[in-house]
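Checklist before submission:
- one chain only
- standard amino acids only
- sequence pasted in full

Submission:
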Amino acid sequence: MNGIDERFLTRNGLTARQLAVLLLGHEPDTRLPRLRDFAEELKVGNGTVQAALQLLEESGAITTQARGHLGTFLVRSDRAILWRLSGLGTLLAAMPLPYSRRYEGLATGLRSACEQAGAPFAITFMRGATDRVTALVERKVDLVVLSRFAADRLIEAGEPVELVADLGPATYVGAHGILVRQGAEPTRPGLRVAIDHSSQDQSMLVERAFAGRDDIEWVEASYMQLRDLFRHARVDATVWNIDEVDRLGGDVVDVLPLGDEITRELSLRNSSAAIVGRSEGAHALEAVRDGLDLSLVTALQQEVLRGERIPSY
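Returned file contents:
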């Protein structure tokens, strides 16, 4: 099928498209809900559901088999056809700028996993978790990638978002450390510390790392400016992803470990990549959640990190 034919514009066809969304969450060789259960969820009659399932079979989207008292089973499904019929369209995900191999690997893995799941996928890159979440809430994007810590804070604050997936430690960043300009004494009064308030993770970590000091001179700066700021001695310290030390200038900064246990625990939560979507799109989120092979995402990310795969996103 190259498009939606006229059969899918009828009452039965519209129900078929709603069923396509639900069936994206079913694996082959699993029992389907009863007709009356589908009918109750979609608020249509049993006959309409039966006709809708027949339309999906005729389109090549699914193959079902009645197994007597065991019920009806989904024998086969073509996720690409189901996704197209569902009307969910292309998934647009907002990610951090791909300034690190880890982010490039994450983007490569997400694209490949979505393609495998039959979901059209596109990426837009935006600096700052706050801006990415705003774009999500304003319906400019469908998914956002941010740290698990930032995702938890959003959900706890009552934002209309929902966790789709947690990819595990070291998928968002490797580890954090305190970066100190060579020649600068980290305990001296008036220490100039770079902070990026557009990044919830970075600003929280740097404030925690230097908590209790009222002699700090805060310097607002994005991570894209850090290299020049350190090289020209305009900042003395910050907290940052140590994956990027070489890019920032390993010859001009020293890396110190994060201090207290709370800061280290927060850093670990910040290292996990989380995928978040709008709560209102429950069926779409379920389709993404059930269809994404997270092991494929992380495996491809590791291949990019090891230099075994060229990033492709």
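Reviewer check: Residues 163 and 276 are 5 Å apart (CA to CA).
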